[in-house]
Amino acid sequence: MRVAALLYALGFLATVIGPEPIGPPHDSDLPVYAFYADQMLGGELPYRDFAFEYPPLAAPLLALGGVAGTGHYELVFGVIAFVLGGVVVALTGELAARTGADRRTGLIAAAVVVPLCGALIRNRFDLAPVALMLAALVLMCRERPRLGLAVLGAGALTKGFPLVVVPVALAWLLARGERRAAAEGAVALAATVLVIGGAAAALSADGFADSLEYHLDRPAQVESSPAVVLTGLEVLGEGHAVTEESFGSAGVRHPDSGLVLGLFTALLAGGLVLVVGAVTVRRPPAPRQLVLASLAAVVLFAALGKVFSPQFMIWVAPLTALAAAWRMYPLCACLVAAHLLTLLDYPFLYDDLAAGDQWASGIVGLRNAALVAAVALVVRELVSPAREAAGPRWPDRLRRPRPAPR
Q1: CA–CA distance, 163 with 259 (Å, rounded to integer)
Q2: 147 within some domain
Q3: Is residue 135 in some structural domain?
Q4: Which of 20, 68, 84, 326 is 20 to 30 Å from 62 at the Cα level?
Q5: Which of 372, 309, 375, 319 is CA-nearest to residue 342?
Q6: Is residue 61 a contact partner of residue 162, using CB atoms and an 8 Å limit?
Q7: Domain range holding 284?
Q8: What is the pLDDT of residues 268-301, one digit of tens each?
């Protein structure tokens, strides 16, 4: 525990004073967060009095960074991020212990991997929804599915991606024969989302709808897999990909954008169905199957979605650490490669990528492919017990048994 705490503290310190790519990047969302905090602490409300692009529970978190005045926002938010990162490390260690791995290995791996995401862990708020998602998984592993799914709903109301864990969690419960717990957990999650989301909508229905429309209208973000394909189409002479600065990031538009985005939406939906199905293969599925499939669903969402900002690798970090704790070394290698390629992309290649550079787009495509390969390895791991139960694979059947030693 002390070793993990020391490694995490040193890693976090490196994000403050270290060189790029671990240290401070060339841009930050903190000025935007400070603006929101200033508005809220001045008595104005998100959605009603000013446009707010994030889910409702992000608002109090961002406002908390301004309690000492927006002039000290970076310092206060950095302290909040440090605490949240420590919570993520501790929860990852707990999940390692709950899924048959060594707690200490999980803690040390998480203490190394979380700071590997660089300064993004302290100038973005993604650690908060990751912590809530992991807390929900811990609760479910402790056989408290109703509270776990409610916490998962809170995570989705902080940043939407934990929603992809919901079908995995419900399928896991049903495969264990816990139909009542699944139904009650679904009700608890729905109640959480409806009450908090309804309160946000009550402030301003139009403002809340605008925040949802904001994300629906975004083009393919330049680091996303759809954007890589659109850039590749231009290389093949199929239309012209235009990079534009909009929606707070660089986006790619192409005459075939609608077709490509529709294709990736279908691929994402199909991949999630595959992951959900894989978690039910082993009856009853163990806690490790729940955690493995849930985090794989999040990785798939990042890899195939139309937006893939560098901070999304914070979502990937728990699975990277747990793969090391579980001694799933090919999976760990794929995920570590994705982390390292992200550090190469951001900040070193990001400006070239935003300018439409094909080499930079290829690096990003390789990163995204590594994440998809990681999900494929997870699915293989989830279904392999069923293969073993069915008997030896056909190449093994052809081998002659060795004679017994004399």
Answers
A1: 25
A2: no
A3: no
A4: 20
A5: 309
A6: no
A7: 217-386
A8: 999 999 999 999 998 899 999 999 999 999 999 9
